[in-house]
Each structure stands twice: as structure tokens, then as C-alpha cells.
Write a structure and sequence with these properties.
Strand order of the largest sheet: 1-3-2-4-5
Shape: flat
Number of helices: 13
Structural class: alpha/beta
Radius of gyration: 29 Å
Number of strands: 12
């Protein structure tokens, strides 16, 4: 074999093997990074978000993780392959979650709207409303775990050994609780649990009959300790006040046929916790008045451009009718009587409370001190 033939064969071998050698050095080459960041190219698993498609892609989704990036950003390039990998995995395990990216140098309006000041910035959206900044790991595993915790159930019911073993294989730590019974939960105001209550009497009869088969739980939703129990059992809708989230603001708060008192609160707020039992009593008091709605919204997870909460708790009254102006409760005393009086003064639709509720809201007779 001639020397030239050997050289040609060696050159051909290099040409064939070089792509494999390059890929072996780095799983994600520069071309992959450029493609992952190219807003025009994108991937099927990472949605390219623009001003034009924001409403149809993000605002209409239950959950969305959105990365705001700049093509020249080194940290963005480092994150890109992990973001693509996480999106591919989450597409299989959580297909209802949108994983998207915004080129903030092109879609400047979105960057300004969500106060993006550095790259990459990742934000979590619930029902189209910004809920929080992303604070998990910057690798694929960290992204997947963070999103899964945000969207998955707080606990899973395991009935077979194989299910448990599969769960243990997937998780570094597994917390397992053994329960011999399921719960029957009764949630309501304090007077529901009085001895004379027919509902409570029937509940006790059922508890006695099914003793050992079901766990019967009662929750006084006017008590300060009710909130963690209600959250644990996912009983928000059972509370006296209507629970408002991003998507239900228009249908509940801005219902023109209702007078609505909205409390915007924060779960960590001490004043909010103190107000909770009073607010639930207020909701119970107005539960038979169809024209009045008492509602609550977690301001740390939900927001609306027409609802401005300057602190927690913020109490805002939205009168019924067209072209009405919201009224902020600025009273120092957030008592049951004061809030009842505020509603009566602000409502545009006439109503009459039952005598018992009206008497409770009335000021004490003159000449006597209120205790």
C-alpha cells in the first residue's frame, strides 16, 4: 500500500470520528447552547414567549416557569442545556406546566413589566399571575424537583408494596405515614358545633356508628388555629369567606351584581392572622345576604392590576354597579361591628341583616362603656 493511500485512509478516519470526539468532550457544545438560546429556533419543550403570545401561552396556563434571558449572558448559556433537559422531563411528568423563555433584549416590555433587572431571571406564574421568583437549583435536577414540589400533591396514597419501592427508588428521602382510617371533616362557624345544632348532632351519631373505620374531624373556621388545618386538608373553599385567586378575580371581585369586601392578606402576617376569626364571623354574618360577598385573596401568590394592596391586611370594598370606585377601609379598629358598619355604608344594594346580626353590629347604648 502506498504512502499516499495510507494518509488518505487516516484522514477519512479522522473525519468520521471527529464529531464523536468533540461530543465526548462536552455533552452540550456551543452550537447546542446557541440553538437553545435562539428565540427563533427554540425547542418543542421550551416555549418561546413573546408579547404577542403571552396571553395565549402563559396567562391561560395553570402553572408556568418563565426564564428571562439575554443572548450574550454567560450564566444564561450555562443554564440553557439544563433548562432544555428539565423541560423535556417535565413535559412527560407535568404536561400541564409551561416551561418557557423570554429574550428580554427583544421583548423589553415583558422584562419591564415583571421588573427583570438581571439575567437569567426565572419567575413562577400561577393562573397567569406572577407568584414568586424561582429559588431552586440551576441544574436540570434542581429545576425538576422545584417545579414538581410546586405542582404535585402534598402527599400520595400508597396501597401496594411495589408502589412504595418505586417511590423509594426515585427519592432520596421518603416520609411514610401509616393510617388505618380516612377522615370525615366538618368545617363551619362556632355555632355549628353547639349542642343544639342538628348538623353537629348528626355528625356525632355518624362518628359513633363508624368508629374505627373513619376519623371524624371538626374545624371551627372562626378560630385562629383553623387556617393550618384548612390548608392541610385543602379545605379553602369550605371557609366562610370566598377564596379568590388570579383567575377568579373578575368573576368574584368585579361582579357588578354584588357588593364585595376583599381582604388581601399574607400568610406570614401577624395582623392578618389576628383578623382571620373576625373576618370569618363577618362572612358567616353575611352568608344569607345574596348581594354581599366577603372574600379573601393571598396577596403573596395572586395579584391583579386593578387591585392595589399597599400593605397586609388590605381591606377593599368593591361596590356593585357600573363605573363604581373601590373604597379602602382605613379604620383603626378592625372589629366585627366596625366592618359591618363599613359594609352598610359602602354597599350600593340595599339589604337587611337578621335582627340578631343587626343587634350585634349596633353600637352599645349611650351611658354604658363597651367592654
Amino acid at each position: 500500500m502506498s504512502r499516499s493511500t495510507i494518509l488518505l485512509a487516516f484522514a477519512a478516519l479522522l473525519l468520521i470520528s471527529s464529531p464523536l470526539l468533540i461530543r465526548g468532550q462536552d455533552e452540550y457544545g456551543d452550537e447546542d447552547l446557541d440553538a437553545a438560546l435562539d428565540a427563533g429556533a427554540g425547542t418543542d419543550d421550551v416555549a418561546v414567549i413573546t408579547v404577542a403570545n403571552w396571553e395565549t401561552v402563559v396567562a391561560s396556563s395553570k402553572f408556568a416557569l418563565i426564564e428571562f434571558y439575554a443572548p450574550w449572558c454567560g450564566h444564561c448559556k450555562t443554564l440553557a442545556p439544563h433548562y432544555v433537559k428539565a423541560a423535556a422531563a417535565l413535559k412527560k411528568t407535568a404536561p400541564h406546566v409551561v416551561i418557557g423563555k423570554v429574550d428580554a433584549t427583544v421583548e423589553a416590555a415583558l422584562g419591564t413589566r415583571f421588573k427583570v433587572s438581571g439575567y437569567p431571571t426565572l419567575k413562577w406564574f400561577v393562573d397567569g399571575v406572577e407568584a414568586s421568583d424561582y429559588n431552586g437549583g440551576r441544574d436540570a435536577e434542581g429545576l425538576i424537583k422545584w417545579v414538581s414540589k410546586k405542582t404535585g400533591p402534598p402527599a400520595l396514597t400508597v396501597s401496594e408494596v411495589d408502589e412504595l419501592e418505586a417511590m423509594e427508588d426515585k427519592s432520596e428521602v421518603t416520609v411514610l405515614g401509616y393510617f388505618s382510617a380516612f377522615e370525615m371533616i366538618l368545617v363551619g362557624p362556632a355555632d355549628l358545633f353547639e349542642p343544639s345544632s342538628e348538623v353537629f348532632s348528626a355528625f356525632k351519631v355518624a362518628a359513633k356508628k363508624f368508629k374505627g373505620q373513619l376519623v371524624f374531624v371538626t374545624v371551627n373556621n372562626e378560630a385562629t388555629e383553623a387556617e393550618p388545618v384548612i390548608k392541610f386538608f385543602d379545605l379553602k373553599e369550605a371557609a366562610g369567606a370566598a377564596i379568590v385567586v388570579g383567575k377568579s378575580v373578575d368573576s368574584i371581585v368585579f361582579d357588578k351584581t354584588k357588593d364585595v369586601l376583599l381582604e388581601v392578606y399574607a400568610p406570614w402576617c401577624g395582623h392578618c392572622k389576628k383578623l382571620t376569626p373576625i373576618f370569618q364571623k363577618l362572612a358567616t354574618r353575611f352568608s344569607k345576604i345574596d348581594s354581599v360577598v366577603i372574600a379573601m385573596m393571598d396577596g403573596t401568590e395572586n395579584e391583579h392590576p386593578l387591585i392595589e394592596a399597599k400593605g397586609y391586611p388590605s381591606l377593599i370594598f368593591f361596590p356593585a354597579g357600573e363605573d363604581t370606585t373601590p373604597v379602602v377601609f382605613d379604620g383603626k379598629e378592625r372589629s366585627l361591628a366596625a366592618l359591618t358598619k363599613f359594609i352598610k355604608k359602602s354597599a350600593t344594594i340595599d339589604y337587611e341583616l337578621a335582627k340578631k346580626e343587626a343587634d350585634a353590629a349596633a353600637p352599645p347604648p349611650s351611658g354604658k362603656d363597651e367592654l
